[in-house]
Amino acid sequence: MNGRLPRRDLLTLAGLSAGGLVLPRGIAPARAAGLFPPVAEDKAVIAMGYVGPTSDEGWSFSHRQGLLAVKAAYPKARYLEVETIPYSADATRTFRQFVAQGANIVFLNSEYGDLLHAVSDKAKGVAWMECDGHSLGPNRGWFYVKHWQPSYVTGVAAGLMSKTGKLGYVGSMPVPTVFSGVNAFLMGARSVRPDATMQVILINSWFDPQAAAQAGTALIDNGCDLLFGVMDEAAYLQVAEKRGVPAVMWNTDVRRYGPKSYVSSIVLDWTKFYVGQAGARLDGTWQAGQQVLLGMGEGVDRDAWGESVPEPVRRQADAVRTRMLGGWNPFVGEIKDIDGKVRVAKGETMSDMDMYGCSWPMAGVSGLKVG
Fold it and tell me: Are 132 and 116 contacting, i.e. CB atoms less than 8 angstroms apart?
């Protein structure tokens, strides 16, 4: 496995244990006995490592809100926080410092792979939870969100609102989060507008306001009349506001940067998950080997609709959301990729793990290649 993986990069799911469970509420089937005894709150040390600045109002900001909830629930514990941890040997040094300072549980809001394992494999008495990870250990698990669910819902709204059917996407890198988000959004749009297409521009970064603004401008100049993306800032929303184009965002509610254009956001809420994990570690019930995907309404959802969204569009998209919350899965074949290869046969349904590890763009997408 590459030791310098970008955030949310899941090039392979080979590290997952065969038949591993994806448990939406953080309950794993077993734990290693004796490794994680209870710890008194006033003796506990809880660590959090962020891939970016917590002031980004995006990805790292959302995770810090979760940690703030932990602090409110367990105010007597000691907390360690490090921002902007790079994908380099500096990450490994930071993780070792967490251990040296007595951390009982460490949360990482990105996948660090071998940079983490070099430490976690030796610090067996420390519990480790890696966001968007894909390998397990006797003291390590991973967690993420089913972002493709609200992406489909907001895609329905996009299909209803677009006048041309030409949608644009500002992305980071060709990783599964991008593939599954693009595909889910376009599937939602095509459920109400079969001729919808999506043009993608990747900027090779999760946080680059200048590049994101340039990508948003280029997409609109190319005829896209509604934007989506996965950036950790609001740059392309600001472009959309100036150009009079609706936009769907990611991570948090950033409508103040473009109140007239804001459609919604794929909003994240880690608070319940983090509080539960910290509490389990303190009371001695924390379980290793967890593979947690938080579903819509559990840790991810669509944000409240923006003023640009007509009431009939809200009702139609929310009816789809209600169906999905009831168990309906819209990701059903036949689905072909951009090369015409059938990826999901007619009548077959994509599982959560299929969406989590997606590495291909569906037909109708441009700007992405098959991974």
Answer: no
- Give the Cβ contact number of residue 4 at 10 Å: 13
pLDDT in tens, 335-353: 999 999 999 999 999 999 9
Q: What is the DSSP letter of 337?
A: B
State how far the Cα of 193 lies from the Cα of 142, in Å rounded to an integer. 36
Please list the residue range(s) of the chain that carry CATH number 3.40.50.2300. 41-146+269-294, 148-268+301-366
Task: Output the CATH code of domain 41-146+269-294.
Answer: 3.40.50.2300
- 220-238 pLDDT, tens digit per residue, is 999 999 999 999 999 999 9
CA angle (66 as vertex; 63, 72 as ends), nearest 5: 145
Q: Find tokens 């948090």 and name the residue.
A: 252
* Rounded average pLDDT over 18-24: 38
Give the whole-angstrom CA distance, residue 319 versus residue 298: 18
Reply yes or no: is the peptide bond before residue 334 cis, omega within 30 of 0.
yes
pTM: 0.90
3-state secondary structure of 219: helix
Predicted confidence (pLDDT) at residue 101 exceeds the cutoff of 90: yes
Q: Using CA atoms, how far apart are residues 159 and 255, in angstroms rounded to an integer?
A: 20
What average pLDDT does the structure give for the chain? 91
Reading the block at residue 354, the tokens are 């299929």
Helices (H) and strands (E) in the chain, counts: 10, 15
Residue 118 structure tokens? 């070099």
- Tell me what the mean pLDDT of segment 283-304 comes to: 96
Please report the DSSP string for 122-152 in residue order: T-TTSEEEEET----BTTEEEEEE-THHHHH
**Which residue in 147, 122, 115 sits closest to 49, CA to CA?**
115
Question: Residue length, the chain?
Answer: 371
Contacts of 324 (CB under 8 A, 6+ apart): 149, 152, 153, 296, 330
Classify domain 148-268+301-366 by CATH number.
3.40.50.2300
CA distances from 342 to 268, 359, 367 (A): 32, 14, 19
